[in-house]
């Protein structure tokens, strides 16, 4: 009888350890947000770029050389990733692309002087809150 009890306890411990490991792995992926990659190409020598950065803030980089690429991790509350590119170089074209966890979610261009991309991060929209009046 004791070998069966000991075997049952060991099996229960294995199940608990596996369940905790799965919870930690799934939880860490969710809490980590989404990896967003911004890409810009074009015939322009340089461009000014504004994109959605961590914390749902805008980040700008001025006079960057093309092609340009930036990878950021956006939190789970960021629903849209935006990228805007401008150049003042006459006749030059620019294009943009946004990837969320490796999947293309927005692409635009080539166009002259300015281009924008707006794509979903895959995060859920927050539920509306009710007023307590």
From TrEMBL:
Chain segments annotated as transmembrane: 6-26
Keywords: Cell membrane, Membrane, Transmembrane, Transmembrane helix
Keyword Transmembrane helix annotated: yes
Top-level taxon of origin: Bacteria
Protein localization: Cell membrane
Pfam families on file: Mycobact_memb
Listed GO CC annotations: plasma membrane
Main location group: membrane
Family label: Belongs to the MmpS family.
Protein name: MmpS protein
Lineage of the organism: Bacteria, Bacillati, Actinomycetota, Actinomycetes, Mycobacteriales
């Amino acid at each position: 009888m004791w070998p069966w009890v000991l075997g049952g306890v060991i099996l229960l411990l294995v199940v608990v350890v596996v369940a905790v490991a799965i919870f930690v792995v799934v939880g860490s992926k969710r809490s980590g947000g989404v990896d967003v990659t911004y890409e810009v190409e074009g015939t322009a020598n340089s461009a000014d770029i504004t994109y959605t950065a961590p914390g749902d803030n805008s980040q700008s980089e001025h006079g960057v050389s093309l092609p340009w690429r930036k990878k950021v991790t956006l939190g789970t509350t960021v629903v849209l990733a935006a990228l805007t590119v401008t150049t003042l170089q006459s006749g030059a074209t620019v294009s943009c692309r946004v990837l969320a966890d490796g999947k293309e979610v927005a692409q635009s261009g080539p166009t002259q002087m300015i281009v924008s991309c707006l794509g979903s991060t895959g995060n859920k929209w927050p539920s509306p809150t009710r007023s307590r009046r």
